[in-house]
Write a structure and sequence with these properties.
The complex is a heterodimer of chains A (317) and B (133). Chain A has 317 residues and is mainly α. Chain A has ten helices and four strands; from the N terminus they run αααββββααααααα. The radius of gyration of chain A is 25 Å and the shape is elongated. With 133 residues, chain B is mostly helical. Chain B is built from five helices and three strands. In chain B, a hairpin with a 2-residue loop joins strand 2 and strand 3. Classes of the chains: A mainly alpha (317), B mainly alpha (133). Chain A: Keywords: Membrane, Transmembrane, Transmembrane helix.
Chain lengths: 317, 133
């Protein structure tokens, strides 16, 4: 029990350290990741979002794992430093301060989980209502709902649906509608709403400012990827950019009283500029995820004992 | 409110037909979906218990009609959607994090439109140049 509690405390300290480190490098990281194409950037953003949690878990486990062989069942019970170590062997349960830190982080995770569950329930109910009130379907999973506002959005986490309003269909040309349908279908195909939802949960341990920045960049990058896919599909990026601006014009009079349209929601100027520039951006190798995993396994297996001993050398007499 | 696949279909049918008994509903769905009269009866009963249908006894059977107007249900859905879209923060389930309420000014819009127009003109010019004489 003592070892488990101490290990959880160590994981908490590691999570907190990674969170602080992420806050320090967030700005530079987001700028650096801008050079990559949307697909690669999404991978980097998701990795960065999970960094405090994964990093904390990995380091915490690495430090704690060798303690299994300690007779005392304490994380640090002997000193590797011939000159003597700083602290006495821990022969107690967690102190109040240590316990508070652990409970604080656990509370944060619990709060994020509750929020995520509520969002999932709302998304599910909304997707269900859209299916119930479908007036017609334009394409598979693209529902038409009767509304006097020009609306286009997708909703649902694991079984997402997209919806367009009848007003939008009335106002746009067939080509523009095709572009919007394709755009929404890209969101559905890649489960973008689900990823957004999961990312919110993963970002629980980031500082609020960093969390906002990551989520915002992630949302814009999802839009850029959808735009890029549609531009490739239609072979006409200018038409896609034009549709975005047309939609913005359509919803502009509604801005004060009515809401808007997801399709034009995100960083309009950035999206249009990206489509028109079509400058080649860097791509991460396809095996990046596998490489990350292999590196992590190598570090964990070879680094656990040295890190544990190093900490023991510093902390225990 | 979460509705099953058949519940949604039956509700949509009753919105169209206004009033029907279980046999009529069954004869409508039977050729397309199959299923027994019992299934339809229990579906109608569930919808009645959820407050979406009203029923009046007629002989041995019940006549069902929608208790909620489609427009009313739709109105509340649109209201929910618009509220979700307007939220535009970490709590929204539609467009969650990008500030859709940001008002892009007229000048920026015009600049983008000019940019698109110039790109179009450029493309047209290139296409003309490529055409064999």
């Amino acid at each position: 029990m003592n070892l488990v509690m101490h290990s959880l405390f160590l994981i908490s300290v590691a999570v907190l350290s990674f969170s602080v480190a992420s806050a320090l490098i967030a700005h530079a990281f987001l700028r650096w990741s801008n050079q990559f194409n949307p697909r690669s950037r999404l991978f980097l953003l998701r990795l960065f979002a999970a960094w405090p949690l994964l990093g904390g878990l990995v380091i915490g486990v690495m430090v704690s794992l060798p303690s299994i062989y300690h007779d005392s069942k304490l994380p640090f019970d002997h000193c590797h430093n011939p000159g003597g170590c700083v602290m006495q062997p821990a022969s107690h349960m967690l102190s109040i301060g240590e316990f508070t830190l652990f409970i604080g982080l656990l509370g944060l995770l619990f709060w994020a989980t509750i929020n995520a569950l509520l969002q999932w329930r709302r998304a599910y109910a909304l997707a269900d209502s859209i299916e119930t009130n479908t007036y017609a379907t334009l394409a598979p999973d693209i529902h038409v709902v009767e509304a006097t506002q020009p609306l286009a959005f997708s909703v649902g986490l694991f079984k997402p649906v997209a919806a367009l309003s009848t007003e939008l269909i009335r106002l746009l040309t067939p080509q523009q509608l095709d572009i919007i349908c394709n755009h929404e279908q890209v969101h559905l195909r890649h489960y973008d709403n689900g990823y957004k939802w999961a990312l919110r949960l993963l970002c629980a341990f980031h500082w609020p400012r960093v969390k906002r920045a990551i989520l915002s960049e992630h949302a814009v990058t999802l839009e850029l990827r959808a735009d890029q896919h549609v531009a490739q599909h239609t072979e006409d990026p200018i038409a896609v950019a034009e549709t975005i601006v047309v939609m913005q014009r359509l919803i502009k009079p509604l801005k004060t009283s009515e809401p808007v349209c997801q399709f034009v929601g995100s960083a309009l100027e950035r999206r249009v500029q990206y489509l028109l520039a079509q400058s080649p951006s860097r791509d991460l190798p396809k095996c990046s995820a596998a490489l990350c995993l292999i590196t992590a396994i190598v570090i964990i297996t070879s680094g656990a004992a040295p890190i544990h001993n190093a900490l023991e050398a510093i902390l225990r007499a | 409110m979460q509705l099953g696949e058949l519940e949604k279909l039956v509700l949509n049918y009753l919105w169209r037909e206004h009033i029907a008994d279980a046999k009529q509903v069954h004869s409508h769905f039977e050729p397309r979906r199959g299923g027994t009269l019992n299934t339809i009866q229990s579906t109608l009963d569930r919808l009645y218990k959820k407050g979406l249908l009203t029923r009046v006894k007629s002989g041995h059977a019940f006549n069902y009609s929608p208790s909620v107007e489609r427009k009313a249900l739709l109105g509340s859905l649109i209201q929910t959607i618009t509220e979700e879209l307007a939220k535009n923060d970490a709590d929204a389930v539609l467009e969650a994090f990008v500030d859709i309420s940001v008002n892009i000014d007229e000048e920026s819009l015009q600049r983008l439109e000019h940019l698109i127009a110039s790109k179009k003109a450029e493309r047209k010019k290139n296409q003309k140049q490529r055409k064999p004489v």
